[in-house]
Design a protein that fits this description.
single chain, alpha+beta, Alpha-Beta Plaits, three-stranded antiparallel β-sheet, 3 helices, 21% strand
């Protein structure tokens, strides 16, 4: 698995997950349970991850949408 995005914004994460799904790339949200346990105050970011073999295509999709992290 390759983590693409870390965010405390569930709307952004949902949008990005849908964007990748539309491109045929399955993405999973990691750390959803810790986020729920802490009461949804946004102290712990969730991570959006894809399979390693989909990472390059997924990063390109996010970059084209203006949503990529990092350099």
């Amino acid at each position: 698995m390759r983590v693409l995005i870390r965010s405390t914004n569930p709307i952004r994460l949902s949008f990005l997950q849908a964007l990748l799904k539309d491109a045929g790339i399955e993405a999973v949200l990691l750390d959803q349970h810790i986020s729920a346990v802490e009461g949804g105050i946004g102290a712990f970011p969730q991570r959006l991850a894809v399979r390693s073999e989909d990472a390059v295509a997924a990063e390109r999709i996010l970059r084209d949408a203006g949503e990529a992290e990092g350099p």
